[in-house]
Structure formats: structure tokens, C-alpha cells
Amino acid sequence: MSRRETRHAVVLGAGIAGLLTARVLAARFDQVTVVERDELPDTSVRRRGVPQGSHINAFAVHGRRIVEELLPGFSDDMVALGATTMDLGADFAIRHPFGWARQFPSELHVVCGSRGLTELVIRQKVTGLSNVSVVSQSAATGLVGDNSQVDAVLLRTTDDDKAVPLTADLVVDATGRGSRAGRWLAELGCRAPVEETVDPHVGYASRIYRIPAEHPTGWKACYLQLGPNQPRGGMLLPIENNQWLVTLLGAGPDQPRREDDFAAFARRLSSPVLAEAISHAEPLSEVVANRSTTNRRRHITDTPSNFVLVGDAACCFNPIYAQGMTMAAIAAVLLGHCLDQRPGLDNLAHRYYQQARAKTRWAWMLATTADARSPHTDGPPLSAAQRIAGRYLDRVLIAGTEDPEVQSRFLAMYNMLQSPTSLLAPRTVLRTYRATRFAANSHQSETAARLPEPGTSLSVDPIDR
Ligand SMILES: Cc1cc2nc3c(=O)[nH]c(=O)nc-3n(C[C@H](O)[C@H](O)[C@H](O)COP(=O)(O)OP(=O)(O)OC[C@H]3O[C@@H](n4cnc5c(N)ncnc54)[C@H](O)[C@@H]3O)c2cc1C
Does the C-beta of 294 come closer than 6 Å to ligand 1? Predict the structure, then answer.
């Protein structure tokens, strides 16, 4: 696999996208340099350049599996450092606007830890590779080259104002949502990328608690989902060191913000389970808020062939769908494939973007369709296709309150193991139709009694199952 016509790759940003890309490039370049603005800690402590580190940042199952392939032992190392494991089917209580999803033993396993721990484990593994080095406390400030080729990146250290060039055969921008790539490309004489945004106006607020001796049984994590008629949500996830990370979510004007309204906001969610759980738990952190939830993708049509954007710099999603880190992993692997498809770097960026667009299509569609159904979202109105897809998804969710097979299909899709079209498999359509028709027609049945009108909520506690 190692094709070494080219020598030095520079990756800007040591977040998840940057580190995984560095891992992929290490197998294809003589030397990989990761440039990071922050000082990188030896622990899982939160750092400034990753403000999402205070909030739930969990890999979808597909993402975790890719990381495991790229960096064998990732999950074991997480667990060795205190992360917990969870069966998403059995241990994760999910309440959506139609009620509690059915819980059942599944093959969908995740490792739960803080973002800081996830990044630490990945960072240790990547920087342990012999041809990867990290230049920290250095910010990339621009590119040297022209509209066909980049020759170097300009770096400025935090305590020195003078930017110095670092020469590179390939430059990858993994600097996240705040990427300046548009400006850098314009400075090289390229047309600026066209940006597409859908802003759901969702706000996060999170706090860490010590897991109390007496805590709910029947689930390890719970998720009270936002929905078109449900502007508030929350999630509780066990992380390392016997802690719960609790993230509250609000769409529109009703957003969790501060310490003094955190518990009150939790009590206004669609079920009391989360508020009750934390009412007995000792808070271990401040409440930290985040409003960076806009879906944004950059369409790059004019670019030097050896400059590529990956991760949030290229396309970021409303994080409530937990897609970003998995998409970052997919992008890293795709870049490796593009390098393997053809020797040299000719036309690399165009070839990469063409394929990346196809890879991000479903994730983008899922996030923006769900967001477009919220009255608080700024973006294009729902298309007819999105309206139909949304209604069918509602039916799948309703069926998933009763039928573990349908719920299992939904979870596989949600965890990016299957595309959304997998929910149109004849067997799933039939079971969905049966479950929802039965609910609609049989008012005497227990199932029907537990299925409310769309948009209202049930008070079935998953602990009772
Ligand atoms: C509140 C919130 C919750 C989220 N929850 C989830 C979740 O549950 N699951 C999930 O999959 N995804 C989640 N995401 C998204 C996920 O965090 C990102 O998609 C993923 O980490 C990929 O990000 P990245 O590596 O591209 O960018 P980032 O993680 O933002 O990393 C960018 C890095 O670049 C560095 N940098 C920035 N500018 C420069 C510069 N000029 N020079 C050098 N370095 C620079 C930064 O310091 C940082 O280290 C969440 C996001 C947010 C905001």
C-alpha cells in the first residue's frame, strides 16, 4: 500500500479528523506533520480549541469500528482508562416524540468516554507512529503557492508574530468549523467555496456528575430526543471515572444556559427520568454552553490539487445526530483510497471532493431533513421528498416502540452502519406498516393505548420493561 513518490504531508489541526487523517497518511507518506494551535495535554482534560469537549461526543458504532481498524486496540485502551461499554439496544433508553423505543440485546456496542479521553487515546496511538510528528502551539495562518499547487503552510507560534513557511507535498485542513480555508483559497486566486447552511438554532449545556450509589437500573444511558414538536431534549451518558456527562438541548428560544436553570430545564423534559437521576447526583463541573450546531457544507470547485479539507472544515452537522466524528473517520479513509487510486497528487482534491460528496450525502440529508421539520430552523423549506421521508421515519419510530427488529434497523441506520434506504427493505416496510396500522386500528389493544398522536408523548418508563 505504501506508495512513496511524495514525501511530506502536513495536517492542520489535531482534532479527531486531523489525527485520523494523519494515521492514514502515515502509511502513504515518508513524513507526516500535524500542526495544532493548542498546547496538547498528556491527559483527557478539555482544551480550548475543542469547545465541544465539554459535551457528549460519542462515536456512532460505524465510526468506532473504523477507528478500531485504523488504530487496533482503541476500545480496549479507552476501557483501560476508565471508559464504559454499552449495548446500544439494551442499555440505552431512548424516548422520542412517540414514546420509549423498545430495548433489546443487540450487536451494537459502543465505548463511552469523554471527548478528551477519546482524543487522548487516538492521539497517543497516532503520535506513537514513527513517521508522525506534532508541532503544537502553532497556528496555520495561510498557504504559499498558487491556484494549482500549494508549496507550504504559513505557521505562527503563539509567542511569535512572524509566520514561517513549512513546506509540504500535501496539505490537509482539519481545523474544524472555524476553518479559514475559504479565505486562504481566495488568497491563492481560487474562487471562494460556496457554503450551504441549515441552522437549527439548537443550544447545548452540559455538566458532569458523580454517579450516585443509588441510580436507575434498566439503562446505563438515556436520551430524551428533540423533535419537530419537542423543542427540549437531554442525554445522560456514563463516562470514565464513574461519572455521568449530562447534556441538555434546546431548539429556538428555550435553551439551557446556566447553572441556575440546569436542573429546572431538566425537569421540563418529556420524561422525569433524567431530572430524577441527577437530583441525587453530585455535580463535579460547571455548566458549559455551546451554540455551534449549524449544518454547513463547503462546495469547493476551484482548488490547488494538493490541498484538501476534511472533517468539520469541509462539512459539519448539527451534533445532536452524532455523525461528525464518524464522518471524519470516513473522510480520512476516503483520502487514503484516493491516494491509492492513482499515483501522484494530480487532481487529488477534485477526485477526493467528488467522492466525499457521495459519502456525506446521507448524513447531510438525515440531519437537514430532521432539522427542516423544526419550526426554529433557518434553511431551505422542506421539500416534498423530505416531507415524505420524515413521515415514514415517524412510522419507523412508532413501530420501534414495539418491534425490536424495526428498532434494530433504525439503530443500525442511526449508527451509520446502513444507509437510510435500508429502512425501505420490504421486510422493514411490512413490519413498520403492520405495527403502525395495528396501533391505528386496534384501539382496545395495549399497543394502541401506548401510542399517542404524533407530537405528544407517552409516560411509559423503560425501566418497567
Ligand atoms: C456540542 C457538540 C457536540 C458534538 N457531539 C458529537 C457526538 O456526540 N458525536 C460525533 O460524532 N460528533 C459530535 N460532534 C462533532 C464532532 O466533535 C466533530 O465533527 C469531530 O470532532 C470532527 O471535528 P474536526 O476534527 O474536524 O474539528 P475539531 O474537533 O474542531 O478540531 C479542530 C482542531 O484544529 C485546531 N485548529 C483550529 N484552527 C487551527 C489553526 N489555524 N492552526 C492549527 N490548528 C488549528 C483546533 O485547536 C482543534 O484541535 C459534536 C460537536 C459539537 C459542537
Answer: no
Tell me the pTM.
0.93
CA 14 to ligand 1: nearest atom: 49
- Local confidence band at 224 (pLDDT 50, 70, 90 cut-offs): very high
- Mean pLDDT, the chain, whole residue set: 91
Report the separation in Å between the CA atom of 316 and the middle of ligand 1, taken as the mean of its atom positions: 9
Between the CA of 51 and the centroid of ligand 1 the distance, in Å, is 8
pLDDT higher than 90, residue 4: no
pLDDT over threshold 60, residue 302: yes
Measured from the CB, is residue 174 less than 6 Å from ligand 1?
Answer: yes
Residue 462 has pLDDT above 80, yes or no: no
3-state secondary structure the chain: CCCCCCCEEEEECCCHHHHHHHHHHHCCCCEEEEECCCCCCCCCCCCCCCHHHHCCCCCCHHHHHHHHHHCCCHHHHHHHCCCEEEEHHHHEEEEECCEECCCCCCCCEEEECCHHHHHHHHHHHHHCCCCEEEECCEEEEEEEECCCCEEEEEEEECCCCCCEEEECCEEEECCHHHCCHHHHHHHCCCCCCEEEEEECCEEEEEEEEECCCCCCCCCCEEEECCECCECEEEEEEEECCCEEEEEEEEECCCCCCCHHHHHHHHHCCCCCHHHHHHHCCEECCCCEEECCCCEEEEECCCCCCCEEECHHHCEECCHHHCCHHHHHHHHHHHHHHHHHHCCCCCCHHHHHHHHHHHHHHHHHHHHHHHHHCCCCCECCCCCHHHHHHHHHHHHHHHHHCCCHHHHHHHHHHHCCCCCHHHHHCHHHHHHHHHHHHHHHHCCCCHHHHHCCCCCCCCCCCHHHC
Q: Tell me if 35 CB under 6 Å of ligand 1.
A: yes
**CB of 330 shorter than 6 A to ligand 1:** no
Per-residue pLDDT of 39-67, as tens digits, reads: 999 999 999 999 999 999 999 999 999 99
